[in-house]
Write a structure and sequence with these properties.
Oligomer: single chain
Strand content: 5-15%
Helix content: 55-70%
Strand order of the largest sheet: 3-2-1-4-6-5-7
Number of domains: 2
Number of helices: 12
Order of helices and strands: EHEHEHEHEHEHHEHHHHH
CATH superfamily of the largest domain: Spore Coat Polysaccharide Biosynthesis Protein SpsA, Chain A
Number of strands: 7
Shape: elongated
Structural class: alpha/beta
Largest sheet: 7 strands, mixed
């Protein structure tokens, strides 16, 4: 079953649907995500064999996909689900190739991976590069096209897909994160990159939807920045107050005391506002990570500030930049996990 979430679609959607029905054996389900009366004439042109669902108001791509998945789970019997965009980016032959790949690997998540060659809108190229980097840091998995809407998965995964958070474009990133966490194989099938009228049919809102997609990363950055400011100021203050202890001991006392205070603040911010989850043992795991990072931090600062020497104010910034990505990965994958 091919699912097409549609919001204010153009005539190109009708061509895609006609091609699917003519050249494949797939059923088609279209969700009108609150497009309004101005677009009713386009939906009325869909062939009779197409299943139509409708939202009274725009609820977002993720919500439209979930509406389709819930309907299929209750009313349809099919081997798997293929999702495709309504803006003409996905060719029928590529939709069929993704479906064929699913038949070969029914337990995998299949992605139609765009090659991004030729004339590709700058925002699409940049956006995919950024989300690729964010996804790699967040999950440890490598996916070339994290933003593709052409995907396929077996029917057995529908209930899990309904439980994944997200109502708009962030849903697709959350789907990848979920599959990476559950060790679901993610297989990419190269497809042709097609952009009609410089991708003018896309309803992706650069600011609003980017904030949702990168939400956890942005909150982590804010939390880490606050902790860094506390840590940075305390290191300099305690180092000044303990300057009579000698360079190495003064540095050790400064780094440890500042990190104890900043880490307590950082832990509670991350647990409540960033990851919004954790177990009873999360604080223990957090401090295991914190101690390891503290040792690395002290070693880095000793080399820079004592052995070289580089001013502590500069060395501290370098140390935090180097250890920052490692801190995020360890907290997401080891500390703040659900039971």
């Amino acid at each position: 079953m091919v699912v097409i979430p549609a919001y204010k679609p153009e005539e190109g959607m009708l061509q895609v649907v006609a091609g699917i029905l003519e050249h494949t054996e797939y059923g088609v389900l279209v969700v009108d995500d609150g497009s309004g009366e101005a677009y009713a004439s386009i939906f009325e042109k869909l062939p009779e064999q197409v299943t139509m669902l409708r939202h009274d108001a725009n609820r977002g791509k993720g919500a439209a996909l979930k509406t389709a998945f819930a309907y299929i789970a209750e009313h349809k019997e099919c081997t798997g689900v293929i999702t495709a965009d309504a803006d003409g980016q996905h060719l029928v032959r590529d939709i069929a190739r993704v479906g064929d790949a699913l038949l070969q690997e029914p337990d995998a998540l299949i992605l139609g991976s765009r090659e991004f060659v030729g004339k590709v809108p700058a925002r699409s190229r940049f956006g995919n590069t950024l989300t690729r980097f964010v996804f790699r840091i967040s999950s440890g998995a490598k996916v070339y096209d994290t933003q593709t809407g052409l995907r396929a998965f077996g029917s057995r995964w529908i209930s899990e897909m309904l439980d994944i958070e997200g109502q708009r474009y962030e849903y697709e990133m959350n789907m990848l994160l979920y599959c990476a966490k559950k060790k679901v194989q993610i297989r990419e099938i190269p497809i042709q990159t097609v952009y009609e009228n410089n991708n003018s049919g896309s309803h992706f809102h650069p600011i609003r939807d980017s904030v949702k997609i990168y939400g956890v990363i942005l909150k982590f950055v804010s939390s880490s920045l606050a902790a860094f400011v506390i840590d940075y100021l305390l290191v300099l203050l305690v180092r000044y107050l303990t300057r009579g202890l000698g360079e190495s001991l003064s540095l050790l006392v400064s780094v440890v005391s500042a990190r104890v205070v900043s880490s307590l603040c950082n832990y509670h911010m991350n647990r409540r506002f960033v990851f919004a989850q954790g177990t009873k043992t999360s604080i223990v795991k957090y401090y295991i990570v914190a101690v390891a990072l503290l040792l690395l931090n002290y070693g880095f600062l000793w080399v820079c500030n004592v052995a070289l020497p580089i001013p502590l104010a500069v060395a501290k910034i370098f140390a935090e930049l180097v250890l920052y990505p490692l801190s995020y990965v360890l907290q997401r994958k080891f500390v703040f996990t659900k039971e």
